[in-house]
Inverse folding.
């Protein structure tokens, strides 16, 4: 029988099989993704210390455009049954935010959460917001660390803010299947590596603005509006096909303007800012002449922001 769960730790690994990762920044084919505190899950099966779940907030696109949450295995100690779930109306926008027992820095620090963590917040007191915690209790976080999801942001401004948010990830290690920003370690996430892969980066950046895009690069391409290079604007996405297969996308980058972008480039590297000439060795004009194909990979452009901008 399926049950509703939520993540009860700062960040947890979602695995293809019920096997722990090696704790190294390697290409780990068993690593599916990561789930953040308070993320909604559906538990489908239990096996020993593991649960097979569906991460409903991270979508995959299957045949006939059917969307479903990312499937995988998570340790039971990282989740708990959902209690009085009221959805969410705020999301954290800083690299790391502390949850306190009281609305003051004098309150007991309970645990940290990372950028992109969602809460249901209600009362405000002296610069703090009261939030519902996974275990059904209440905590407090600083208002300056959150964005209220119902706030409207003009299209031009949201583009600038998306780029600013992506810049927070600069220097974060590339982690295959990673979906968490690097921050000082703490006991709440002991043994869990922090990092992002290319699509984990874009998924999290958009999440801060309550724009839910699919989890992996190919599905992000399927879901976005396909645009021409001359329509590209800051906050849009640049996609790369796999070598020799123009129909399959295996890399995504976030455009920052003036032919620049931010990307999580690959295992052993860190999130960095780059540009067309540095990445591909030729100018944009040459790419146009070559029909946007370089080294057997085709370049595409897409947007989730082409209309008037999201109204949460």
């Amino acid at each position: 029988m399926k049950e509703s769960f939520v993540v009860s730790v700062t960040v947890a690994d979602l695995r293809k099989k019920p096997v722990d990762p090696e704790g190294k920044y390697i290409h780990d084919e068993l690593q599916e993704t990561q789930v953040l505190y308070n993320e909604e899950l559906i538990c489908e099966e239990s096996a020993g210390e593991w649960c097979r779940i569906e991460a409903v907030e991270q979508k995959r696109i299957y045949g006939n455009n059917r969307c479903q949450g990312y499937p995988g295995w998570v340790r039971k100690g990282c989740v708990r049954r959902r209690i009085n779930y009221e959805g969410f109306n705020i999301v954290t926008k800083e690299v790391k935010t502390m949850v306190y027992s009281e609305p003051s820095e004098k309150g007991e620090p309970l645990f940290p959460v990372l950028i992109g963590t969602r809460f249901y917040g209600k009362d405000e007191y002296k610069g703090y917001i009261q939030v519902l915690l996974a275990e059904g209790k209440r905590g407090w976080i600083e208002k300056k660390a959150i964005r209220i999801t119902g706030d409207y942001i003009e299209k031009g401004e949201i583009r600038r803010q998306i780029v600013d948010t992506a810049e927070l990830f600069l220097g974060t290690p590339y982690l295959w299947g990673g979906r968490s920003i690097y921050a000082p370690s703490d006991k709440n996430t002991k043994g869990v590596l922090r990092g992002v892969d290319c699509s984990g980066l874009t998924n999290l950046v958009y999440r801060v603005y309550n724009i839910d895009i699919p989890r992996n690069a190919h599905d992000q391409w399927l879901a976005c509006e396909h645009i021409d290079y001359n329509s590209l604007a800051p906050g849009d996405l640049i996609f790369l096909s796999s070598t020799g297969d123009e129909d399959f996308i295996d890399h995504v980058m976030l455009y920052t303007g003036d032919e620049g972008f931010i990307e999580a480039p690959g295992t052993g590297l860190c999130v960095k800012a780059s540009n067309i000439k540095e990445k591909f060795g030729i100018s944009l004009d040459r790419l146009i002449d070559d029909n946007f194909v370089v080294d057997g990979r085709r370049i595409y452009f897409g947007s989730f922001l082409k209309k008037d901008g999201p109204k949460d």
Remarks:
- Residues 155-303 form a domain with the endopeptidase fold (from Nostoc punctiforme) fold (CATH 3.90.1720.10).
- The CA atoms of residues 167 and 209 lie 15 Å apart.
- Residues 308-312 have pLDDT under 50 and may be disordered.
